[in-house]
TrEMBL record:
GO terms for cellular component: plasma membrane. The chain crosses the membrane at residues 20-39. This is Biopolymer transporter ExbD. One of its GO terms (biological process) is protein transport. It is a single-pass membrane protein; Single-pass type II membrane protein. It comes from Idiomarina seosinensis. Belongs to the ExbD/TolR family.
Length: 135
């Protein structure tokens, strides 16, 4: 009987409780997911013009790209110029602290740039910037 009891005690002591380690790993996973910042892209690469007074802008949440062929892109989708205001309104409703940054190609028409800026202001966003490359 003593021999049987001694075997039970040895088996019980040799097991490691994994619950605290799993709790710590799960909490770290949640922490990294919550604190991760996700990069937003407009959907196309544009050749931005150079500017001597370029300033880094943080918290740019609504990116609008204008290609050299005057195509407007938002969230990796080509958008008709008449639908830009509705798309900006939707994105601004999701994040009211966001600002609009327009990434216009060097070869894009000024008319298209102005139409996008007007659409952003009509959508209620008055913090509108044009992206440039620093000289």
């Amino acid at each position: 009987m003593k021999q049987h009891f001694a075997n039970l005690v040895e088996e019980e002591e040799s097991q490691i409780d994994m619950t605290p380690m799993l709790d710590v790993v799960f909490i770290m996973l949640i922490f990294f997911i919550v604190t991760a910042s996700f990069v937003k892209e407009s959907g196309i690469d544009v050749n931005r013009p150079d500017a001597a007074t370029a300033v880094q802008k943080d918290r740019a949440n609504i990116l609008v790209a204008i290609s050299e062929g005057n195509e407007v892109w938002i969230n990796k989708r080509q958008i008709d110029i008449r639908a830009v205001q509705a798309n900006i309104e939707r994105l601004y409703a999701e994040n009211p602290q966001g600002s609009v940054v327009i990434q216009a190609d060097e070869q894009a028409n000024t008319k298209t740039l102005i139409e996008v800026m007007d659409a952003a202001r009509s959508a209620g966003v008055f913090d509108v910037s044009v992206a440039t490359d620093e000289q």
